[in-house]
Amino acid sequence: LQAVKNTGEDLLVAKQVLMQFGGLKAINQVDLRIKRGTIHGLIGPNGSGKSTMMNVLTGIYVPTAGSIEFEGRSVVGRTSSDIALSGIARTFQNVQLFGEMTALQNVQVGLHHTFDSNFADIALATPRSRREEAAATQRGMGLLAFVGLADLADEQARNLPYGKQRLLEIARALALDPQLLLLDEPAAGLTAPDIKELVSIIRKIRDHGITVILIEHHMDVVMSICDTVSVLDFGQKIAEGQPAEVQANEKVIEAYLGGTAT
Ligand code: ADP
Ligand code: MG
After folding, report:
1. Is residue 145's pLDDT more than 50?
2. What is the pLDDT of residue 119?
3. Ligand 1 closest atom vs CA 22
4. Residue 232, SS3?
5. Cystine design at 175: which of 5, 81, 111, 188 (Cβ 3.0–4.6 Å)?
6. Could you tell me the pLDDT band of residue 262, with boundaries at 50, 70 and 90?
7. Residue 159's Cα: distance from chain center in Å?
8. Which ligand has the minimum distance to the alpha carbon of residue 94?
């Protein structure tokens, strides 16, 4: 994981992003400014456009209009893998792991870009490929340890409890050595102790200098770890600010928090 650098500067700047599906404006003229070194919450009711925003930022969708710059360079029109390699990693709202592969192998999938061996090296088990394999094991184990899964390295992913699968997905995303990590509802379906562990891991990620965009419905999680929160409703940004400000905002209470504010 990389060292903290230039905390506080803009890492990602999205301007007037529009994502239209037929007649539906899933994202409607949204500006987003993500400061390096922060945990930036993205909240809002179901269907408000949060996951779509993530898909636009990671190149799964090309926005209908608007600009997105990451470290000063446009991401619009680039492929997902190119964007990932340039430093934006993510997890999905629904866990996406290779169930038959071990935890370690799942993390190593994320590591492949960091090695130089070509197919012939690997097929012939050249010294270079064997050296790299040892390094990949070591790095993969380091990442598993980071999320508390070192003991489960050899378990098939599908056999891990749900909360651990979520953490494994995070470890795999971290294998890309990202500057920015996007987490789409990482606490969904987790038990209270698992959420506590997740929160401490997200903090640790931020402390390693990785900027985080966090989509989350658990308001206690959002309020306790986010530096800034943006609120979407029907594809539009209706509020933004520090967690306490946002929580007290009339529009936010009406659209989203209602009686459920904690
Ligand atoms: P959230 O993550 O905030 O719950 P989404 O971003 O998943 O919301 O969805 C926002 C809106 O965009 C919803 O109305 C959803 O049905 C619609 N939507 C998302 N993806 C697509 C798609 N690929 N095609 C058509 N409509 C979509
Ligand atoms: Mg979603």
Report:
1. yes
2. 64
3. 25
4. strand
5. 111
6. very low
7. 23
8. 2
